Amino acid sequence: MVTNTTDIAKLADIIRRPIVTEKATLMLENNQYVFEVTAKARKPEIKAAIEGLFEVKVTGISTMNQPRKRRRIGRSEGYRSTYKRAVVTLAQGDSIPLFPDL
What we know:
Helices cover 25% and strands 36% of the residues. It has 102 residues and is α+β, with helices and mostly antiparallel strands.
């Protein structure tokens, strides 16, 4: 676990947002969570960030760089920006509240 507050602040910048799609929601049954992370983040940094922010035990991480995709709006054409996705597997009994009770 990370104890220094400046380290936690730096690690918090690694995790951008949780990805909530139909496939990611189905993966919650296997105790797997999907996050968008910074492009230069490495697996040990992602693991430290998740464990430090959510106080859970991470057992596995898979990362993938999503390719850029061509998009058109009318006559103009461009590309959607790329991003890095991390699938985090947690230890049995741990969970991350993506939708806290309001």
